[in-house]
Amino acid sequence: MEGILPLYKPKGLTSHDCVFKLRKILRMKRIGHTGTLDPEVDGVLPICLGRATKVAEYITDAGKTYVGEVMIGFTTTTEDATGETVEENLVKKSFSRAEILAVLAELSGEITQTPPMFSAVKVNGKRLYEYARQGLEVERPSRRVTIYSIELLDEREQFEGELIRFRFQVSCSKGTYIRTLAVMIGEKLGYPAHMSQLTRIRSASFTLDDCLTFSDIEELVETGAIVEALQPIETALYYLPKYQINDKLGEKVKNGAVLPIPEPFLNEKGPIVLEEVDGTALAIYEAHPQKEGLMKPKKVLKI
């Protein structure tokens, strides 16, 4: 059994918990998730089964879309609703819709974020959350991320009250922390803030409409229809350039041959998918680091 299983991750489970549970339901070991979702975040979590684990990183690297809620008035240790209050400053003014939209516009495009202490980013070989649980704070590397779009999901013209909350939808690059984005929204409005709720509604090409719950999966396993519910490996590679090859060259590709870069892709910086006439992905190639004009396999997908 191989392919991609778009899972609806419920709140209360880590991504690893989901993999552990699926190993029991599907009775197979070769399963991997495609990027950590915090326990209190629900939504789309594509799961790779069997040979599809080879393409997990390409789902992780693709864009994500979230619907979240920011609360203005206090911030927490975790930057979300699960943490302890760090700073409270109840809102003493109202904000117009135009002011909120202006802040969201400022946070569009390429921005710099510092990962929260309660995150899986590694510093000196340890996860940040390991330091945080020991009450330690370490220097964290900032990163550049891209906010492709951010939209206010609230019809109000005026936002007021001691605690102000509103929902938004954001499409972003790999590595973006929506918790941190919520804090940044508050900072630009002049108040402490945190992310009070978050749902991932898209990961790569997979949306909530594609997702199956654990109950759905258990039912499909019982009826023997689980294989038909899996998405092909190729769906994970939708955004990569494709080069179609014949059977003769295909045999060389399966054996990991170094090949000349096809002329249309000479200026291509990223990976290229080599596929059969029927669209089956054979391998993912990349420019050879030492041999100019040649490419080598990064992942051989079909043997």
From TrEMBL:
CDD domains: PseudoU_synth_EcTruB (cd02573). This is tRNA pseudouridine synthase B. Pfam families: TruB_C_2 (PF16198), TruB_N (PF01509). Keywords: Isomerase, tRNA processing. GO terms for molecular function: RNA binding; tRNA pseudouridine(55) synthase activity. Residues 179-237 form the tRNA pseudouridylate synthase B C-terminal domain. InterPro entries: PsdUridine_synth_cat_dom_sf (IPR020103), PsdUridine_synth_N (IPR002501), tRNA_psdUridine_synth_TruB (IPR014780), TruB_C (IPR032819).
